[in-house]
């Protein structure tokens, strides 16, 4: 049964309502990760959109302009995943954030955060990628992991926009004194996905689709 706002000929995740490509069969054929996009976006073979990155200064080439530190200091540091990177240095509290406001999001679109992370002087410890409401009072979604001495691509963070403005946070999730590094941060938007054989929903991983 469709709920208000769902289109007659579009597949949806039966659990979270994430939309599939309109008028496509349940098993589509749209590349290794199943993504397809609306007019104005194009998709490379690796599934990353070639449309504009919603992040400002995600490469931290020479500064940290566009990012704000909370309970930490921020700096552009050498030896990044590509060129320079972001160095977060704890000053207080159990979690330290570098955050940035995202604007111009399209309500109903799916967005994907990708970032690299590496341990600093704090050693291997917990980190998180988070999306908050535009006033930073509501945590919408997060992915977590443990840093290592080598650059590692964090698990992608997916969320479906219900506001035109959200906030992204890169989190050193520890009360240990010292540093952690992030680099090559991107956010791209997608209107829908095309299903492939055996593929789960990127938002909740369910394989139960409805039309």
Structure report:
The chain is mainly β and 211 residues long. It folds into two domains: 1-37 and 191-211, no CATH class; 68-190, Jelly Rolls (Sandwich), CATH 2.60.120. 0% of the residues lie in helices and 41% in strands. It has no helices and 16 strands. Strands 5, 6, 8, 11, 12 and 14 form a six-stranded antiparallel beta sheet that branches. Strand 9 and strand 10 form a beta hairpin. The chain is globular and about 50 Å long. Mean pLDDT is 81; it is low at 22-47.
Topology at a glance:
Blueprint: E1 10-13, E2 19-22, E3 35-36, E4 68-70, E5 72-77, E6 85-90, E7 96-102, E8 110-119, E9 126-133, E10 139-146, E11 152-153, E12 157-160, E13 166-172, E14 179-190, E15 192-193, E16 209-210
Key terms:
mainly beta, Jelly Rolls, 2 domains, 6-stranded antiparallel sheet, 5-stranded antiparallel sheet, 0% helix
- Tell me what the CATH architecture of the largest domain is: Sandwich
Content-based structural category: mainly beta
Main beta-sheet strand count, sense and barrel state: 6 strands, antiparallel
* Count of β-strands: 16
Q: What is the CATH topology descriptor of the largest domain?
A: Jelly Rolls
Alpha-carbon Rg, integer = 18 Å
């Amino acid at each position: 049964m469709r709920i208000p706002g769902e289109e007659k000929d579009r597949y949806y995740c039966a659990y979270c309502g994430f939309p599939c490509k309109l008028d496509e069969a349940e098993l589509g054929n749209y590349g290794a990760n199943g993504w397809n996009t609306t007019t104005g976006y194009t998709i490379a073979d690796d599934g990353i959109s070639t449309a504009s990155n919603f992040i400002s200064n995600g490469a931290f080439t020479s500064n940290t302009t566009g990012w704000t530190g909370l309970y930490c200091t921020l700096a552009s540091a050498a030896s990044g995943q590509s060129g320079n990177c972001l160095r977060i240095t704890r000053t207080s509290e159990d979690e330290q954030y570098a955050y940035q406001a995202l604007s111009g999001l399209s309500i109903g679109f799916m967005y994907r955060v990708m970032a690299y992370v590496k341990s600093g002087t704090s050693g291997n410890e917990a980190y998180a990628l988070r999306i908050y409401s535009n006033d930073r009072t509501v945590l919408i979604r997060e992915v977590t992991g443990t840093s290592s001495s080598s650059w590692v691509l964090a698990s992608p963070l997916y969320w479906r926009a219900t506001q035109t403005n959200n906030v992204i946070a890169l989190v050193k999730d520890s009360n240990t004194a010292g540093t952690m590094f992030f680099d090559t941060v991107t956010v791209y938007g997608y209107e829908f996905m095309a299903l492939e054989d055996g593929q789960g929903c990127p938002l909740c991983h369910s394989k139960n689709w409805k039309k």
